[in-house]
Amino acid sequence: MWDDEFRSFSERQLFDSGLGRLVDIVVWNYHPQLELGPDVWNKYLNVFDSLWVASAFKGATGPDKQVPDIAYHLENHRSWMNLVASYKDTVHFAKFKGIMLTGWQRYGNIILIANNNNFNSTLKTVLFLDHFAVLCELLPASMPSLAANLLLLQHGNGQRRTIDQEGGRILGCPAGLFGRCDFSGASVLNTVQHLGSLLEQETKMMNTSVVKGWLTGYNIARGFSSPAHLERISVEVSYLRSSAQALQREARSALDEVYDPSVTSEWIATHLQPLVDRLNVLSRNVDEMRS
């Protein structure tokens, strides 16, 4: 049972309930610095016969995020390893049964379960989904993070360079986990990274002095602006618009290799189509003003 419902209970309440003998409790926290005080641990260790800890290799940092922050999740796992290790010379150490690596596909979980205190045995997978949330950090886009964090758990607090090189070898990433990879489904990762790049370019364009000074709502509503500046804006908008339209085709091809059509359509409609729509409106506004 997940522990958050029990954090506000006193040790006496938990003890009297008898839950400690009936269930394993899963203590979760997904931050680089764990946010659970010693009072929580002392209470759980005194009451429950078996404890699991739960981390995250993807998700947990934003319901619509697309690529995991590998460094963020590595720190989360290091913190868990350090906490468990701090109990190694105590009678409570045997109560720690293993770690669950949660991987959020929506704001629900895919859980990879590693048994035993060394955290390096065979994995089991349990799936939880909340279908009202949008898709986030698709599994193929998160394989480098999964590889990095499993290697950390398997080999201990090794150097990031070692993890990067070994993970890169496993997933076919010649330049390491932060570069281009060639594992099955890697085209999804490339597509997601391409979208991130286009979104950054759009933000940069919209924050230029030309757009802020000559393409305001006031300019658009009245249909006038500097022709020279509109020409400059038109070139950049046209490039981004054609790139986004090409990415739509790329995304459909990449996602169809892995997912059924409903997932492909949902991801494009949620994460890519809004960019295309914004650029279409902007292009139309610029063309109307230039004419």
Structure in words:
The protein has 291 residues and is of the alpha/beta class. The protein is built from eleven helices and five strands, in the order ααβαβαβββααααααα. The chain has a five-stranded mixed β-sheet. Helix 4 packs parallel to helix 5 (139-155). The protein is elongated, with a radius of gyration of 24 Å. The model is unreliable at 117-122 (pLDDT under 50).
Short structural description:
The chain is an alpha/beta fold and 291 residues long.
Key words describing this protein structure:
five-stranded mixed beta sheet; alpha/beta; 11 helices; elongated; 11% strand
Instruction: Enumerate how many helices there are, as a single number.
Output: 11
Count of distinct strands: 5
Residue windows where pLDDT falls under 50 for at least 5 positions: 117-122
> Which strand order does the major sheet show?
1-2-3-4-5
| Head-to-tail CA distance between termini | 65 Å
State which percent range the strand residues make up: 5-15%
Rg computed from alpha carbons, rounded to a whole number of angstroms: 24 Å
Percentage of residues assigned to helices: 40-55%
Average pLDDT: 90
C-alpha geometry: elongated
Q: Tell me about the biggest sheet?
A: 5 strands, mixed
